[in-house]
Design brief:
It is built from 3 helices and 6 strands. By secondary structure, the chain is an alpha+beta fold. The chain has 2 domains: 46 residues, no CATH class; 58 residues, no CATH class. The strands form 2 sheets. The protein has a 4-stranded mixed sheet with strand order 1-2-3-6, covered by helices on one side. The longest helix has 11 residues.
Amino acid sequence: MGSNIDGSPHDKDKNSPGSPPSSAKKSLKNQKSWDWDAKEKDWLNKIEIGSGIDGDGWIVSYPNGRKVTILNPWTMSVPMQALYPNSAALRQYYTGPTTINPRGSASGGNVPVLPMPNPGSIPIPGPMPVPVFP
């Protein structure tokens, strides 16, 4: 439960995740003029989320330059759209691996998932002439 001046999480892996209790936030605000919620909201609003390469998942760009790629999962050999990251996910991705890959090629400590085969390209037949009857 640490926060930098810009509202980003502080002390990676040394503090419990999430926000402090409401009583601690109120005390910080009254004694130190530190508005935890406002700082965090401002930091979250500066995060840019864009579509991944060729529409594959999301690319999260943090204000400090950190980038996290979230790839789409595959279900029964069909690509599914990865969920749009919410605030809790954005906080988690800030200190986690830079690639979230649910397809099985784990990197940066991801838990591997059985990979699904790529269906490749499926040939689509061209248009066929149809006779016109009067």
